[in-house]
Specification:
With 133 residues, this protein is an alpha/beta fold. It has 4 helices and 6 strands. The structure holds iron/sulfur cluster (SF4).
Amino acid sequence: MLTARDWFDDGTVFVVDVPLACCALETQAAARGRAEVDLAAVPAGAAVVVTLSGTLTAPVLPAVEAVLGQVPPTRTVVAFGACACVGGPYWDSYSVTKGGGELVEVDHFIAGCPPPPEALTAFLEEVRRDRVA
Ligand code: SF4
């Protein structure tokens, strides 16, 4: 079962995190205390944001693709951290992709190694503003 966090506890923005490496500690810190629901229970009209948090190595790509395949195509994909943006410090490793853009269309990039949890929430506040405007 895939779950999503009701980020603002108001049914507007739901986040599906794909935890891949150390950046996931930051997204998990940002998500602490936020209600988790079955992705299938996300209301129509809500924004669904997928965060790629960490290093995308060749062995994990099928699992990441499987997650993306379960998320509505209207999702917003966020590359959280240098690894998910461009490969980070491991960009020249044979097994590391040069960012999530090699796998899926990325809508927003958050730089840093790692970025702070607040950087994710700041972007999600923008998403929420656009959604309710
Ligand atoms: S960007 Fe830095 S902190 Fe984030 S997963 Fe890569 S190495 Fe780890």
